[in-house]
Design brief:
single chain; 636 residues; mainly alpha; 3-stranded antiparallel beta sheet; 27 helices
């Protein structure tokens, strides 16, 4: 192993990360513009400094690694290339987590309440004594309000309403302020609750509010969020994306920038820089898995430049279209990054559904445009290049692309049919049959494309769909986009080959003397190792899924799901979808990690497990697993 050469090339990752962070700094100024229709006029000091410190640390890492590897000699062989593939994502993940940690960004509030008032709440993850009815009536509105808190009048009103619901109509005997102060005298609560005027550094919009203290992201949270961005998974541990104090705009932009880098592929950038024969091919192969397309591995530098230019061009086109449809520049760039990278990070808690809530007409057009570009992002970029130069027949003739589009159309029809039977798409009781059909088409098509391309955007709470519809989406997580796309998952081409291999093996069971070659698109596949590679890959996916699922089911506490039997019964399904969603880089799953939920309440070790699954899924398994083989690191 040429360790000096590996260090020199890893230093390039540090430099790329540091340079990319610079583009997030301007968004700390409110004059640059933030979210659409948002009026936030405060310079984000903590976010700006967190990014500056992260840039400096990235540069220091670059200098150290470059110094170690500056005298590196020799060629870059396949083993070094695979080491760079795995280690570069680890380095990128660690450096990408720094802005979250150094800016003090928060992922949730300190208090967690459960379904019933008599169950002990959690403060900073630890259970405390159960609350009285009056205390519960004060805390529950504050939990719903998040880190922003409530004004005196708002808390008074909601306190009285909550107390009346608990006691079935009785008026509270104590003033809300008295109950709040009494609660703060209890152990643990003093550090979790903030009274009006108590925090001299609070922003003006909440300085006079009753609040629950936000919880800064820990290392596991930051590593999870960073890997989710670079792997284009789109899973998140952040409960409130719309609070600029808990998550500054500049850090939020960095969060979306990790999608841009992950979709483009740091390894593809290596190929551009290196262009060193078989090593470059090994690097590119980890970004474009599956059987080779014609011409996709020739002239590696030219191919990488072409893919990078096409990817950046599509991002620019989508940004302009989203801006024309009503988004401001900040939202348009962030959602373009999330769409073309098939990542799914949004700037709103309700994801792309936010824009439909604001303006149904422009919101619907935004959804259709994003559907188109998600479909494009899930297509092999080699085919997109041929389409761009006027050779559309290559796209139509490609067997993988035909299967890919067939799955989208077929599953959408099935989801629509069952959803209309079970009234999943009825907005209100007066919805006509025609309106229901168009709602079903928009919602069904969007979610199918979002899941198969592993983007993970949400416009409708598919967790409320019928069981068959949810089951279909769960299975769709294991399909993924085309090889050579930014989509994650197993990839369509592997499924095609897997089924062909199964049929060949079935035929051999009753015709053992027949020798029939594996064919793809009518042509025999020459690679003699392909059948074994496909079977091994599916076996590893199954093993990782089963062991990951059992680990979460066994060690994750039931309290993560809540306190009722109804919620705890969902643990098996929710755990399975969580593992599938992270392993296949989808993001949202079902239940507590559904379209309207997040991963914040999982324990730190489970978040790290999910982080590992995201990286394994993004790097096609082998590039990660070989890092744990001692023989891999020994000298030749």
């Amino acid at each position: 192993m040429n360790y000096r050469l590996v260090c020199r090339l890893l230093s390039i990752v540090c430099l790329i990360i540091g340079v990319t962070m610079v583009f997030s700094l301007p968004w700390a100024w409110p004059a640059i513009g933030h979210r659409t229709d948002e009026n936030f006029q405060q310079f984000e000091t903590h976010g700006f400094l967190g990014l500056v410190y992260s840039i400096l640390l990235s540069i220091i890492c670059w200098a150290i690694l470059w110094r170690i590897g500056r005298k590196a000699k020799g060629e870059l062989y396949r083993r070094e290339a695979m080491a760079i593939v795995g280690l570069s994502w680890i380095v990128a993940t660690v450096l990408g987590a720094l802005p979250y940690l150094l800016s003090g960004s928060s992922n949730k509030i300190a208090v967690r309440l459960f379904e019933h008032q008599d169950h002990a709440p959690q403060i900073y993850g630890d259970e405390v004594s159960p609350l009285t009815m009056a205390e519960y009536a004060v805390v529950k509105p504050l939990v719903r309000a998040g880190a922003k808190g409530l004004s005196r009048e708002a808390l008074k009103e909601q306190y009285q309403a909550t107390y009346a619901v608990i006691t079935k109509g009785e008026a509270p005997k104590q003033n809300y302020g008295e109950v709040f102060e009494e609660l703060r005298e209890l152990p643990h609560w003093r550090s979790a609750l903030i009274a009006p005027g108590e925090d001299p550094h609070a922003p003006l919009d909440r300085s006079e509010h009753y609040r629950i203290r936000p919880v800064p992201m820990n290392i596991a949270d930051a590593i999870f969020e960073s890997q989710s961005g670079f792997s284009t998974t789109g899973a998140t541990v952040i409960a409130d994306l719309e609070d600029p104090i808990s998550l500054p705009h500049c850090v939020l932009f960095w969060r979306s920038s990790t999608h841009f880098l992950g979709g483009l592929g740091i390894i593809v950038l290596f190929v551009v820089i290196l262009g060193q024969g078989s090593a470059g091919k090994a690097l590119m192969r980890n970004e474009i898995p599956g059987p080779s397309k014609e011409g996709s591995h020739s002239r590696m530098q030219h191919t990488a430049w072409t893919f990078a230019g096409l990817y950046c061009g599509l991002n620019l086109v989508l940004t302009i279209l989203l801006w024309i449809l009503g988004m401001n520049v900040f939202d348009a760039i962030c959602h373009a990054f999330g769409t073309l990278a098939t990542g799914g990070f949004s700037t709103y808690n309700s994801s792309l559904g936010h824009f439909y809530q604001v303006d149904p007409v422009s919101g619907a057009w935004i959804e259709y445009v994003v559907i188109l570009f998600m479909t494009v992002a899930g297509t092999n970029f080699t085919l997109l290049f041929f389409l761009m130069i006027g050779q559309a027949h290559r796209l139509v003739a490609d067997i993988e692309w035909r299967y890919y589009m067939g799955i989208i159309v077929g599953v959408t029809i099935i989801v629509m049919a069952f959803g209309m039977v079970y009234d999943d798409f009825i907005v209100d009781p007066e919805t006509s049959a025609v309106s229901e059909f168009f709602f079903a088409l928009r919602y069904g098509l969007f979610q199918v494309v979002s899941v198969i391309t592993t983007t993970g955007y949400g416009t409708h709470d598919f967790d409320q769909w019928n069981s068959f519809g949810r089951g279909v989406l769960f299975l769709l997580m294991f399909v993924g986009g085309c090889a050579g796309s930014t989509g994650g998952g197993v990839k369509v081409i592997r499924h095609i080959l897997f089924h062909k291999i199964l049929f060949l093996q079935l035929e051999k069971s009753y015709h053992p003397s027949v020798v029939r070659p594996l064919r793809l698109g009518g042509k025999p596949v020459d690679d003699p190792d392909l059948q074994n590679n496909i079977l091994i890959y599916f076996s590893l996916i199954l093993v990782l899924f089963v062991f990951g699922w059992m680990a979460v089911v066994t060690f994750e506490p039931d309290l993560t799901w809540g306190t009722t039997e109804e919620h705890i019964e969902h643990k098996l399904i929710d755990s399975a979808t969580a593992v599938a969603a992270t392993l296949n880089n989808v993001g949202p799953g079902l239940g507590i990690i559904g379209a309207t939920q997040n991963y914040a309440n999982f324990t730190w070790w489970t978040k790290l497990l999910f982080t590992a699954l995201m990286m394994i899924g993004r790097l096609e398994i082998f590039a990660v697993l070989v890092l744990f083989m001692p023989r891999f690191w020994r000298s030749r």
